[in-house]
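Justification of resources, computational component.

The compute hours requested in this renewal are based largely on the per-chain cost of generating structure records like the one below. Each record pairs the submitted sequence with a full C-alpha cell output. That output is archived, and it is also reused by downstream analysis tasks.
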Amino acid sequence: GRAPQNDEKIVISLALDKARERQEVLTIGSVAAALREAEYDNATYREIGLRMSRHLERWTSGLHGRLLNNTRTCLKVNASIAAIDLKDLENYPEITRIFLFYITEMIWSACQANPGCKKMIIFDEVWALLGDETGGRLISELYRTLRKYGAGIMSVSQDISDFKLTRHHAGILANTGTLFILKLSSAINDSEIRSALNLNDREMELI
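The structure output for this chain reads:
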C-alpha cells in the first residue's frame, strides 16, 4: 500500500500515545480503540482516526483476530531445524502477506544470530510464494543478501515455469550458484527451460 500522509502520521502518533497511556502491551485491538478514543484537535483528524480504526477492526475478531490480535507470537525459531507450513493460506491472501512479514523477520533474526553457524533456508513448493508480489520480493531479497550471514537458500518446485511467476525472477536467478534439474515432463521443451532459467548454450548441453 501507499505510505501514510502527514495527517495520517499525526493521527497514528496521537493514537499510539493514547494506547501507551494504558501501559499495556499493544495489540491491533488496543490500537483500534485508541484511534477511536484519542483526543483530536479537529474534525479531519477524528475522521481519519475513525476510518483507520474501522480498517483495523476487521483484524480483531474471527480467524484474523485469533491469529493476529494477541500480545504473544507462537512463531519462534529456536530449534536447529524448523518448518513452517503455509498450506491453504493461499485462500487468505491478506493473511498470507502478513505471515510473510513474520517469516521475513524470523529468517533475518535466525540468520543474524550465532554468525558462526551456517544456515540453509529451503522453500518447498515455491510457486505459492513466487506468485505473490510480497513473496517474490522476499525471496529475491534473501537470494541477494543471505550469503552475508553465512546462510544459503534453496527453492524447490515441480514446474520449472514457476520461476517466471514473479517479476523478481531475474534477480533470483542471477544470485543462484547451482541449479538441480531433475526429470521434467515431456511436455516441456528446451526453449521453455532456457527461457525460464536464463540458460546459455553450454548450460543447456549439461541438462
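The chain has ten helices and two strands. The beta strands are 119-123, 151-155.
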